[in-house]
Amino acid sequence: MSSAVKIFDTTLRDGTQGEGISLSVEDKLKIAQKLDELGVHYIEGGWPGSNNKDIEFFERAKQLSLKQAKITAFGSTRRKDTDPADDVNLNKILESGVSVATIFGKSWDFHVHKALQTSLEENLAMIYDSVFYLKSKGLEVIYDAEHFFDGYKQNQAYAMQTIQKAAEAGADWVVLCDTNGGSMPSEITRIVTDVAAQVNCPIGIHAHNDCELAVANSIAAVHAGARQVQGTMNGFGERCGNANLCSILPNLQLKLSYTCISPEQMTQLTNTARYVSEIANVHMPLNQPYVGSAAFAHKGGIHVSAILRHAKTYEHLTPELVGNKQRVLVSELAGQSNLVFKAQELNLDLDMQNAQTKQVIQEIKDLEHQGYQFEGADASLELLLRKASGQVEDVFEVKSFKVSIERHRDQAVRSEAIVKLAVKNEEVYTVASGNGPVNALDNALRKALIDFYPDIQRMHLSDYKVRVIDEKDATAAKVRVLVESSDFENTWSTVGVSENVIEASWQALVDSLRYALTGKTAVTPNKEREAERSGLLNH
Amino acid sequence: MSSAVKIFDTTLRDGTQGEGISLSVEDKLKIAQKLDELGVHYIEGGWPGSNNKDIEFFERAKQLSLKQAKITAFGSTRRKDTDPADDVNLNKILESGVSVATIFGKSWDFHVHKALQTSLEENLAMIYDSVFYLKSKGLEVIYDAEHFFDGYKQNQAYAMQTIQKAAEAGADWVVLCDTNGGSMPSEITRIVTDVAAQVNCPIGIHAHNDCELAVANSIAAVHAGARQVQGTMNGFGERCGNANLCSILPNLQLKLSYTCISPEQMTQLTNTARYVSEIANVHMPLNQPYVGSAAFAHKGGIHVSAILRHAKTYEHLTPELVGNKQRVLVSELAGQSNLVFKAQELNLDLDMQNAQTKQVIQEIKDLEHQGYQFEGADASLELLLRKASGQVEDVFEVKSFKVSIERHRDQAVRSEAIVKLAVKNEEVYTVASGNGPVNALDNALRKALIDFYPDIQRMHLSDYKVRVIDEKDATAAKVRVLVESSDFENTWSTVGVSENVIEASWQALVDSLRYALTGKTAVTPNKEREAERSGLLNH
After folding, report:
1. CB environment B40-54: b (16+ within 10 A), e (fewer)
2. Which SUPFAM superfamilies would you find in this protein's record (chains A, B) (predicted)?
């Protein structure tokens, strides 16, 4: 049997069923382009029979110049008691102009009776006619057998008949769906093996993650003979998500020697996963397998240098194969050797005999002792290491800030921030309001800097976390604020610690902007705009 | 073979290796109590040989009254060329007072040479001596075979010898660790089967999630004969995390008919998972299998009532079995019966026909929709339920508040709060400074109330947590503040939600004081002190 496995990405269709995930047509086109570069074989773009946004996507997708991926449109089998040629849904697939149709039908007798409210025979005819009609129009047809595993467990003979009908009608693929996500790998193995022995058509698997087994179930199906895997980037999807292609791809190809995409394409995996997260505006978990920023992170300690020397025995995979990289987390247990290693990663020279270097190293240790936690704040650490190596840039200097928050009965809360900075030897003095004090500070800072550094409009804060370090005396205790910021390519994290939540937030905000602006050249601001900005102080 | 599987929770030890996870001794004690109620068999509390915080945990854990869970301490085998009786690390385990020791040793010849820098024979002796020593002191001994699967793949004979030594020395369990998380389920099945056939000792599995297969690998090991599963709540842990017990427990017991905990305990799974997330201040993904809030969420639509009528065919499991609930994303159907149940717990009568009751129930639903999460804030919920039942007391009324935070170069930050309340029909107007804005507000509030309610000096804030609810636009997004307060007898938690971190903190602070003062009788303040207090406004 061939070791080639086809990858069917449904991020744009099933992925958008996930809570909090919504993609514009523009977003979908960008993601489709990126998925093609990654090398997936099928991109399911949407359901043209269900909404106009999807129709627009298929129209505009014709302009994409894809290297290899085929765009496919989703839809259901024909309605009961209808001629397929008169079926609106099937005709919408044809009108979408795709060369591949993906249609789903019922496998479970219970759903035929209750959801379709028709006979078992009519359902078989609906499957046969729909596949046959689309094949007669020259399309490649993928048949998704909805609820297949549950149906098989309840009425094996009928479930088998449904997919036999699809195969007889000429389906190019029969895809077995674990729609409710409740199957165990042992069941998948048994059932796919049985199907592969009886059905004369290539088989695919479509798994959901309700038991945290979607990746395992997809692999089990491939072992049992499936040669197409359906899933989504980062496992987006309804309830607990679809099978995560970002884990399935490296598992199949790098661990189990199946062939899915080229090795060069595999090095784009991390980058693609992060891009899709960014476009969907969904926070990617640090600990996501293979592509998360903690996936190859080592906690520092006395043994860190030994770990790095023999990385292969402490890492299950070379991270570069999937485009990720090793990271050393600098935690309180960490020693000087970690900092040196970290500096090397950044191409900074630390001369440990140098007085300033020694002083900054001591400063980092003192900060850790106070409660700074650099393992979640790489950008703040990088700024300090730059200082230690003498390669620091003072992109701006803080003179003062002031925030006030006020609420009177039955009125909304008001937050106002005033910021005084020195940028390129000019004093800049701005005021801004915001939804809260941190937002007001962020707005005032940006207002002060945007004329010098127009690029900052590309970046935004993507996460904000606060934690009390010592809980003994909570509101008088130190708090640690972590701020995560992103632009279109990168994400970076900064930290602030203070007894004052606003002061800690301010430190993290200032670090975030300093980090973003390091290496950028300030422009001389337009004098008119500057006058306008200063004028705001009079309000 | 018995169907009973023992659950070994290492949230407090391996879980804290996760990036961004840090637990105080107090946090660990709370989690241990909750894990015992869930019914896990072993709770690994820490590594007493590695740090003083863990030593303190074991000391204080002696005061916990656990129903069934055994607390276990972690450590390594003895150092090379040492008598176990002289080994500091082993003796720290004994000194911790636990009845179960969990020690790890090397299985992989490569690591013996490179990390331990000793001979293969000495490593075998280290394992044998360490297990034998702890057994001779009367402890139950769990032997964790670190890097076992990688070691077995490289040098099968030697890896087998290491665990045979542990078994010969009397280990109660040999636990096979996939330390790097890189093994596939098919490998786990093959290797555990081989070990089970050769080693005369109960076997356990310790998996990591680097390939998104930790749950599948744990199950595969149980199928192959393992009868102990090590993992963490929510899959916390280094890199991509440890095996997630929140998925393994229901998979083993509800899907595969193994016996782990009682059915009643299983209904505490969701609640425990969320509690641990709250305490660790880690955002629980909506889509987490079994316990996430989207795990049984149905997107509303025309078929939603049909879905609900035949829920069993659209859900892989009845959510109540794991203490979760079905959610319909469009119309909020859930909640009311839970609130009635909660009110009964508090001896409050809710008359669901009463207009005010209906209105407050609607208010609670709206608040949940906004992002309030009452699971971690029982006191805030109780205040609302008291309002719903008409048994509310207005201990004080807020007229206005104002906070300002200011810093000038080289000076310390200053925080000042002004509060205007009505207490017993008197207007009270106070100002106070603090270490931060929340502390200043707390001080001003207390100053306003202490003459009426002298008891409030007995209470203090014991924890303060902030979380961004919607990460899309971080500093302009809603934040949720949880405040925990204590007096000498009780601890209670309150919540506030706002786009403004100060406003949210204020809500939680006010709720905390309202809760504490409910049922207390206000005294008439001494006029002299009152005059003095008012005078403070002139400063």
Report:
1. bbbbbbbbbbbeeeb
2. 2-isopropylmalate synthase LeuA, allosteric (dimerisation) domain, Aldolase
